[in-house]
Design goal:
The protein has 337 residues and is of the alpha/beta class. Helix content is 39%, strand content 17%. The chain is built from 11 helices and 12 strands. The strands form 3 sheets. Strands 9-8-10-11-7-12 form a 6-stranded parallel beta sheet, with helices on both faces. Helix 1 crosses helix 3.
Length: 337
């Protein structure tokens, strides 16, 4: 009596599948991942089912999602053929970006940005950085094409990380003589009191995210040597006054916490042969009540000037834990009501 109410499973003839063949079984094992976790990540993201049969993968689902999954799998396999590993972040990037080729993909001059089949790669000493969203890809292009670039959006979208990667790449390529990284020394909503030690000891806690990014791209000993030789400078925004920053790649992080006067001061430090990147999140201003953010004013004043680019990110561009994107969306929704 209960059996008649059940829907019979589809016969094999009713299941539409795309069959993909991968000649190297060792690479196929890496493609699938331990306990097929890479396949599971693709299945969950695209709503398909992937079954391994020998050296073949069968992708089942709707036509569009099957084709999309096939593109991602082929791109990841090509990555393995090139001798590179696959991480969950790489899979997420392939799913977001796709494996489409771009006709306008070309190297920008002789710089270290490599366009391969529509892809953008930033080469550093320790790793290769790839944009994982279209907004990040456009941002990288803007950093290479403009002398002054702004990256504006929520935390976790890679604004500062990508900017530092491009700076390291240009430095290694000999396009700039030094890297200068700065941020306002503003406490995030809590008083830390007087910190012990010399000036470096006092400001380093504010600069730590910049050190972290540098250490991702350069060996630790090299970072220390370059800082000692002043070819890499990491300093609070207040230390920039009175300087002319020539032949340098300059990054101002957390620019939403710069006052109007500080922002004007910093922007006018730009010297010959330099590139400047300003990153910030308008939703995380830690300035005292009533003090205007210099980032907001710079947006309104500089938007129409040639050779100045503005790249904007949203919660969809968050490349940290998936929950971060949901948290940001929840706060944005609450602020809009």
């Amino acid at each position: 009596m209960g059996i008649s109410a059940l829907t019979p499973p589809p016969s094999p003839e009713d299941v539409v599948a795309t069959r993909l063949e991968f000649p190297d079984n060792r690479l196929l094992i890496d493609l699938c991942g331990e306990f097929d976790r890479n396949l599971a990540q693709i299945e969950q993201a695209l709503g398909v089912q992937i079954v391994r049969r020998g050296n073949q993968l069968e992708v089942m689902g709707e036509q569009g999602t099957r084709d999309r999954a096939a593109e991602v799998l082929h791109a990841l396999y090509a990555r393995l053929e090139a001798g590179r590993e696959i991480t969950p972040g790489d899979i997420d990037g392939e799913i977001r970006m796709g494996a489409e080729e771009s006709a306008d993909a070309a190297e920008t001059g002789d710089q270290m940005e490599l366009f391969q089949g529509g892809r953008v790669e930033i080469k550093t000493r320790k790793k290769t950085v790839e944009p994982r969203t279209e907004a990040q890809k456009a941002y990288v292009r803007a950093l290479f094409e403009n002398e002054l670039a702004f990256g504006i959006g929520p935390a976790g979208t890679g604004k500062t990380y990508i900017a530092v990667a491009v700076g390291v790449s240009m430095f290694l390529g000999g396009h700039v003589d030094k890297i200068i990284l700065s941020r306002p020394a503003v406490e995030a909503g809590e008083r830390l009191g007087f910190l012990p030690g010399d000036m470096k000891d006092k400001v380093d806690p504010y600069m730590q995210p910049l050190y972290d990014a540098l250490n991702d791209f350069l060996p630790g000993k090299q970072v220390a040597k370059l800082i000692e030789d002043k070819r890499i400078e990491i300093a609070p925004l207040a230390f920039m006054r009175g300087r002319t920053l020539s032949n340098a790649f300059v990054v101002l992080d957390e620019a939403q916490n710069a006052t109007t006067m500080q922002m004007k001061m910093f922007l006018t430090r730009l010297g010959e042969g330099s590139r400047m990147v300003i990153t910030g999140d308008r939703s995380q201003v830690d300035l005292p009540r009533g003090v205007q953010s210099g980032l907001r004013e710079a947006e309104s004043l500089l938007g129409g000037i040639d050779k100045i680019s503005f790249s904007y990110f949203t919660a969809k561009d968050v490349v940290r834990h998936p929950l971060v994107a949901r948290i940001i969306e929840a706060y944005e929704k609450a602020e809009a009501t």
